[in-house]
Amino acid sequence: MAVKLNSNMSPPSRRLQTKPVITCLKTFLISYSLIFWFTGVILLAVGVWGKVSLEAYFTLISEEGTNAPYVLIGTGAIIVIFGLFGCFATCRGSPWMLKLYAMFLTLVFLAELVAGVSGFIFRHEIKAKIGIAYNSAVTSYNGTDDKSAAVDDLQRKLHCCGKKNFTDWKNTSYFKENGIPVSCCKIDKCSPETLKDLDKAQTEVYTTGCFSLVTNMLEANLGVIAGVSFGIAFFQLIGIFLACCLSRYITNNQYEMV
Question: What are the record keywords, sorted (predicted)?
């Protein structure tokens, strides 16, 4: 008499074919999670570096300061935690953990996509805001506060002077008493008499404005910045795909073994 097999049971050969797929997906997802974790470490390091080294520039751009370093630090820390969580969920082979990991990657993808699109759409508004902030910093320059230090540092590093050109300083209170800031000098030190005379200073200070240099540099690299940003955003889709596939294969494999 022939014995009828239970229709709910999967043939052993099918289960044996599923296990190599699961192992392969686990390997890829762990590799992805480690890369994802490493990007979190980079964001964390950039945030800390920005807070320590670029605080003066952030003060220059915004009257109230900016939370950009804290956003990077917080985002980096969360990515580090979830990167480790992704490795743990993959090794554990827990479907619900993998789904949670996929949900988090989806949120990261959407946030990065919105941030990238918003930055591209409002780039002219951002440019105008930077121009207003820099003009305010030049007008209120006194040579002692944080904004003045940021202006000096920018002028020395970019070899520029003023917003549009070196003559922007003639309408400031600082110029009436001290002349053009020493940070505009092409040589190590200009004489006080030269700095107070625009005609004499023209040959000894940088004549190009800082604002045009900054904005031209940003616009020249806008395509690269946008490409990298969207590339990182769509990188999350790989993790979402791997996490969902692995969760589905593990769930099906557990069902087939019942």
Answer: Glycoprotein, Membrane, Transmembrane, Transmembrane helix
Among 32, 20, 25, 24, smallest CA distance to 86 is for 32
Compute how many other C-beta atoms are within 10 angstroms of the C-beta atom of residue 209: 22
Write out pLDDT tens, residues 134-182. Answer: 888 888 888 888 788 888 888 888 889 988 888 889 888 898 888 899 8
Residue 246's nearest CA partner among 107, 62, 86 is 86
Phi, psi of 171 (to 5 degrees): -95, 10
Q: Which two tokens stand for residue 226?
A: 């946008």
Sign of CA dihedral 54, 56, 57, 63: positive
Output the six-digit token pair for 200.
Answer: 């004499």
Q: What is the pTM of this model?
A: 0.67
For 112-123, b where at least 16 C-beta lie within 10 A, e where not — what string? beeebeeeeeee
Q: Is 99 exposed, middle or buried (0-12, 13-18, 19+ CB in 10 A)?
A: middle
